[in-house]
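User: We ran a pulldown and think these components assemble together. Before we commit to crystallization trials, I'd like a predicted model of the whole complex to look at. Sequences follow.
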Amino acid sequence: MAKITFIGADGTRYEVEAENGSTVMENAIRTGVPGIEAECGGACACATCHVYVGEEWRSAVGEPAPMEEDMLDFAYDVRPGSRLSCQIRVTDDLNGLTVTVPDRQA
Amino acid sequence: MTSNFAETDVVIVGAGPCALFAVFELGLLDLKCHLIDILDRPGGQCAELYPEKPIYDIPGWPIISGQGLVDKLTEQIRPFGAEYHFGEMVTELERTDGGFRVRTDGNTTIACKVVVIAAGGGSFQPKRPPIPGIEAYEGKSVFYSVRRMEDFRGHDLLVVGGGDSALDWTLNLQPLARKLTLVHRRPDFRAAPDSVNKMYAMQEMRQLEFEVGQVTGLIGSDGMLQAALIKGPRGEVEVPCTRMLPFFGLTMKLGPVAHWGLNLHEELIAVDTERFETSEPGIYAIGDINRYPGKLKLILSGFHEAALMSQAAKRVVHPNQRIVFQYTTSSTSLQKKLGVA
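Assistant: Here's a predicted model for the assembly, 447 residues in total across the polymer chains.
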């Protein structure tokens, strides 16, 4: 289990308890975090579950795989730390992870 | 633009898997269909979002790719000779004496007795990149598609993006452009390797420029572009350009369906579960775009919805015909329709 905090585009904080093995996107959808759309349902095919991972968490979360990096080309306002939340799997190591939701997904 | 007029039994808005299977179920009941889709080929999300990704929950197919399923469905419905209108979006739906009149942005008008909305997540529309003030240039000097290549002749062109559309248009428009600059946020591309190699070869020969970076601002007036600001490894640079083509993929928007007077619930169309009819008689909605208690957004649910909707549509189109329920395994008349008897 890990506690994950989503910071909405308006600054609102959403804290969720996430099970190991689930994806960060699934936890956002399950708890209704606004701004995470996940149009393709987690297939790494649409870039609408885009989040920003803060610098302090980047090494724990890891780098995007090539397929995700390709998909990020189609995300809105890509910055350092941009990730697709459907491609981040929850582990105990991510307890306390904070991600920011962009203004828009597309 | 030429205008087309057609008459049919059923117009299906969308050409995704549920729309395709609806052609089959309607066809068994002798109903003819026209399908209209904004994409340039059948398959909807299966073809556009995940053609190569495996699907595991299609009954009878332990694993099948998105494109594989679309190919099988188009093969399955071939006997019914549905007509496709690709690259067009339905913009207007008007009720007439005997049914409906459907109009598209491609100047097609179709008169029909039944309308089936199988539009999935809505219509695919180009994504707008996060550049402040870009709206003012859209349709004047910023375009999300190339309708006529000639419109770009002699221009200083800026193509933005790293997918096949960006690469293909870079290669196709380079000979026409006065100068062409491709901008992408990284030196790797998600495009056919052959196109990428060609682009780099042309860069080598100074036939085009490739900038790594992101467009952060536009300079111009009255919608006419003069230059773009590009932020990359060498800081922010100003690149003169008179036309820009951003290619950031597609996103789904409900679009004109929202204005057809149907009962909507969170961008979904409310239907009953016996006929999958909307709040407007004669207009049905199947697949991901509908909503009813217990709805699951699964392709298999859409197939079931297509079968039940077809029974209801039959009663609208041929109110005096008795529907005899038959199986394709044993009915000679159904097998004749399928061309196998």
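Chain B touches chain A through 22 residues (CB under 8 Å). That may be worth checking against your pulldown data before setting up trials.

User: Thanks, that helps.
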